[in-house]
Amino acid sequence: MTAMMWLAIDTTGENCTVALRLGGGASHVLSDPIGRGHAERLAPMVQQIFADTGAAPTEIARIGVTIGPGSFAGTRVGVAFARGLALACGARCIGIPNLAVLARQAGPQPALAVLHDAKRGEVILQLWTQGEAGPPERCPVADLPARIEALAGSGCKVTGSGAARLPDGFSDLGITTLDPAVLLAMTGELDPSGHPPTPFYARPPDAKLPGGVLPA
User: Fold this and answer.
1) What pLDDT, on the 0 to 100 scale, is given for residue 1?
2) Any bridge partners for residue 117, and if so which?
């Protein structure tokens, strides 16, 4: 796999980020803290990173894209773009869970709770124990300390945007921004068959199509 080239995309947060790993192992990253407007910014940034490196899109073997939880609109933009580009380039598309990226950035921990602030008094919680991930779950902020205690006991470290919703006394690692280098590494490591580019939304969209149907 050392000769493979892959691209990683993240539009789930404030930054619009594209990262390219060339066949020789060098990495190139473009990241713009735009807040909003990922749909307009993403394609030009991908074009720019290929122009900067002299690489061709048809050389890409894998495209990794963050699937959330994060911004609803940003997640849809990134996943749709990655799927389309992968189809055009003949590349494999890999969905990268945001919580797993943050857990990787935290490094080895006996117990780690990664928390995403889902707003409206809720947090998405996923627990890692000795590097093994449990299922993500939605948890009311008021119940969060007790839930972490029930899952991991005392001494569990926490990180992610939802960690700020906890009371004092928890060991917060303070990791809230996804590292492009980790995104690239996971793009190369994850099994595409087990990590489809399917969005993971913190909650269903408020908007509904006629007849009460949720958007796809």
Assistant:
1) 40
2) 123
